[in-house]
Amino acid sequence: MKILVINAGSSSLKYELFNKKLDSLGDGYIERIGQKGQIPNHEKAVKQALESIQEKGLVASLAEIKAVGHRVVHGGEKYSAPVRITPSVQKEIQKLCKLAPLHNPPNLAGIKACKKLLPKAAQIAIFDTAFHQTLPQKAFIYALPYDLYKKEGIRRYGFHGTSHLYLSKVAKKLLGKKADRLVTCHLGNGSSLAAVKNGKSIDTTMGFTPLEGVPMGTRSGDIDPAIAVKLSQKLGPEKADNLLNKQSGLLGLTGKSSDMRDLLATRKSNKKSQLAIDIFCYKVAQKIAAFTASLQGLDAIAFTGGIGENSGYIRAQICQYLPHLGVKVDAAKNRANTTLFSVKESKVSLLAIPADEEKEIASQTLKLL
Ligand code: AMP
C-alpha cells in the first residue's frame, strides 16, 4: 500500500510517495503547469506525476496507491481535522474559495484530477487552517463590528498548520513535558509563528489571510491598517493588494531580493539588506515574547522552514532579544544546525527541525484510513 501526497498550487504541483511506514519513496515538482495567460492544467500535471512514479519503478501498478492526501489551504471553521473528500466535502471546499481565492481553487483542481486518474484511491483533505481551530475566541476575533465575524467569516484562521503541528509533535518527542509551552516558528518564504500549549495551537501570527504577522519574502506582515486603506485609495484595491502581498517584506525593503540567502550574502556591503534582516529578526523575537503571555511562560522554541532550519545567524539574531526569558544559545551547535542548540542551563530549549509537511500529511492520511 502506498500513499501519495499532492500539493497543488496555482502554477506548480508538488508530490511525494510514501509507504505504510511513512518512508518517503520519491518526490517531484512540476513547474509552470499553465502556460502564461492560460488556465493551469492540473490533470496534465497529475498525469505527469503518475507517469514519473511508474517510470522510476516506485510502484508496480498505480493500484498500489490506496490513498491521496491533498494539502488544502483553507478549511474555514468547518474543518479542524483531516476529512475524506466526499461530494459534499468537495462542495464545501469550493465554497471556501471565497476565503482563499488564490489557494483553494488550485487545491480543488488537484483533487478533481486525482479523483479522475486514481478513481479507486481514497481522497483525503488536510487543511492548513485545521491546527489553529483550537484558538480561543479572544485570540481569533478581531476588534471589528462583531457582525463581520458572524456574517462574513472575518476572523483569524492562521495558516502553515500542518507545519506547526509537525514541529510540535517532534518537539514533544524530543523534550516531553519540556515542550508543554512551545512557540513554533515556521520561517521560510512565508513565515508564521504559533503558541502551542500542551500540543494545541492557542494563538498564531497569520490571520484572516497569510498577510498578517511577521514580515515575509514579499508580504508586509503587520502594518497600520490605515496604510492599506490609503494605498487602496491611491492605487486601487488590486494594486494595493499586490503591493502588500507581492512587493513588500524583504523584497520591498531591499528593492532587490525576497530571498534570505541573498540578503545574508550582501548584508556587509548593503545597508538595506542588513536593515531588512534586522527588521525580520526583531519582529519574530517580539512575537515570541508576546506568545509568552499567551502560554503563561515558555519552555521551548522550535524553528523550521528554509530560514528557520538553515540559518544559525538568523536564529542567533532572534534569540539575542530574549535573554530575559532565560534563552541561551550554544553558539557552536547553532552554527552547525544541531537539532537542540540551547546550552544545558538555558531555561528555554531551542530546536532547529527540518520541515516535513508532506510526511505529516501522509501520516494524517494513513491515520484517517
Ligand atoms: P521555504 O519557503 O521554507 O522554502 O524557505 C525559503 C527561504 O529560506 C528563502 O528566503 C531562502 O533564502 C531561505 N533559505 C534557504 N536556505 C537558507 C540558508 N542556508 N540560510 C538562510 N536562508 C535560507
Would you spell out the secondary-structure blueprint of this structure?
Blueprint (H helix, E strand, L loop, with lengths): L1 E7 L4 E7 L4 E7 L11 H14 L9 E8 L10 E2 L2 H9 L8 H14 L4 E6 L9 H4 L5 H7 L8 H15 L5 E7 L3 E7 L2 E5 L20 H11 L1 H10 L2 H6 L5 H7 L4 H25 L4 E5 H6 L1 H8 L11 H5 L13 E4 L4 H12 L1
Parallel strand pairs: 1-4, 4-6, 7-10, 10-11
Antiparallel strand pairs: 1-2, 2-3, 5-6, 7-8, 8-9
The structure holds adenosine monophosphate (AMP).
Sheet-strand content, in percent, reads 15-25%
CATH superfamily of the largest domain: ATPase, nucleotide binding domain
Could you name the CATH topology of the largest domain? Nucleotidyltransferase, domain 5
- Topology as H/E string? EEEHEEHHEHHHEEEHHHHHEHHHEH
Q: Please state the average pLDDT score.
A: 96
Strand order of the largest sheet: 3-2-1-4-6-5
Give start-end ranges of low-pLDDT stretches: none
How far apart lie the N and C ends? Answer: 12 Å
What does this structure look like?
The protein is globular, with a radius of gyration of 21 Å. A hairpin with a 4-residue loop joins strand 2 and strand 3. It has 15 helices and eleven strands. It has helices at 42-55, 87-95, 104-117, 137-140, 146-152, 161-175, 225-235, 237-246, 249-254, 260-266, 271-295, 305-310, 312-319, 331-335, 357-368, and strands at 2-8, 13-19, 24-30, 65-72, 83-84, 122-127, 181-187, 191-197, 200-204, 300-304, 349-352. The protein has 369 residues and is an alpha/beta fold. The protein has two domains: 2-127, Nucleotidyltransferase, domain 5, CATH 3.30.420.40; 177-352, Nucleotidyltransferase, domain 5. The chain has a six-stranded mixed β-sheet, with helices on both faces. The protein has a five-stranded mixed β-sheet with strand order 9-8-7-10-11, with helices on both faces. The longest helix has 25 residues, at 271-295. The mean pLDDT is 96. The relative contact order is 0.12. Residues 188-189, 217, 259-261, 264, 305-307, 310-311 line the site of adenosine monophosphate (AMP).
